[in-house]
Amino acid sequence: MQWSDVAAAFLTPSGDEPDAPTVSYSPARRLRDAVEPISTIGWWAQAAGDEFAAAGLDFFGGYVWGRAASLGADADVGTVVAAFGVFDADLLGAVLDGARPIVTRDEILASRERGAAAGLAAATTSVDVELVESAARRLRATMEDVDGAARPLFSGLRSLPEPSDPHAALWRAAEMFREHRGDGHLAACVAAGLDQVEMNVLTELWLDYTAGEYSSTRGFGPERIEEAVATLRASGWVDDGGALTSDGRAARDEIELATDMSQQRLIAAAGDGLDTLIDDLAAIGDAVVGAHAAPADPRKRAAG
């Protein structure tokens, strides 16, 4: 699948997008939602897609190898599957094994940085570059001293050189935050007793998708998704019609709270400037969405 196919499926507004789902309004979640369009521009932007194509990769090859590269040139497939958490192992392994022989780690890291910087700059022409620089500096400062234990993707990104380009620096800080939250969220899901398909299904139902509508994009087949639904139903979290029960929603809300708690030191590090930081990042993120460089469906942006 090439970037143009992805753009048609996810980025081009249909005019019939659903309302944004109701989620937590905690400081950590608000920061997450502000950061999301910025952090993902390293694969959604056309400039990123062009970089992948120039390197000989399709969209998904660039996405998988680009994210996995922070774990090292020789990170085995099992390690990458565990770190990503929410993709089918056979799918992820096949894509990674296909991409690594084509592009070296250094090349894919450089390629995605160029694509992200160019994509973010193109999407935010209405935003003063001084705000971009300031937001990057303030967001990264919240993460400089937080513990990286049990956060492989976050720690891998933090170990990379900080980009000098202001748009690339903001993107890097944003994706560091995203992986920090993602690492914590996977831990919260595992602590709740969920396997990788069950955590996908529970989240998609929480965000008003139907079961399988989102999870199928992660490589899971209908039978495996139905097994997950059956397990959630047996727990009393999904009803016979395939919708979340009140207990199911409460369980997913508890996972969200645990995810927020995993970021409490980061949030505390932002101090009194947190609300201003969120507002500034939200303005930049809104510009990205308005430029069609992030998914048009607000559920997709909320799901990550």
Q: Care to describe what's here?
A:
This protein has 17 helices and no strands. The chain is mainly α.
Quote the distance from N terminus to C terminus: 19 Å
Could you spell the SSE succession in H and E letters? Answer: HHHHHHHHHHHHHHHHH
Characterize the main sheet.
none
> Which consecutive residue ranges, at least 5 long each, have pLDDT under 50?
none
Task: Give the averaged pLDDT, no decimals.
Answer: 97
SS summary, helix count: 17
Beta-strand segment tally: 0
What is the strand content? under 5%
**Coarse structural class:** mainly alpha
Feature tags:
304 residues, 17 helices, mainly alpha
Give me a quick take on this structure.
The chain has 304 residues and is mainly α. The chain contains 17 helices and no strands.
